[in-house]
Design goal:
The protein has nine helices and no strands. It is an all-alpha fold and about 190 residues long.
Amino acid sequence: MTLLAAGLLLFLGVHSVRIFADDWRTARIAGMGPGAWKGVYSILSLVGLALIVWGYAQARLAPTVLYSPPVWTRHLAALLMVPAFILLVAGNMPVTRIKAAVKHPMVLSVKIWAFAHLLANGTLADVVLFGAFLVWAVLDYRSARQRDRALGTLYTPGPVSRDIVAVVVGLAVWVAFAFWLHGWLFGVRPFA
């Protein structure tokens, strides 16, 4: 559990700099240059992610069960992942109507992903992992919306075709994860 906690602190800590120390971040970027900042940010994020994966894998070997969710929560979690994948794709596309409506679809995707997994998993490692991401996503979304209001940021809706692409690609990725990749990567098949 120590590796998982360390990984979460590092990964989410790096991703929280803009939430808690935006002025410091701006000063570091100005001092280091954007390329160096992105390099350090990326390296720290990758190390944090590696620790999360390693720590979570270790914690799953001797799980501490906090609650036992009913089987139907696995199916609900799988269905909640449909909008999560669509939002994830929309968040990585330029100007979509989805982005114009929700402003930060990738962060909203993380919220849904974390909440869905908390519904379906009841071990200590799951609560720590998905709970930490849910708290981070709530704080990050709030911070990003405050920045948008302060800066007067407007999100222009793009053509409907981009939203169609986001929905189709999101659904395709969901199918791949739900029926193949999730089981292969994590040893859990959502519909098994």
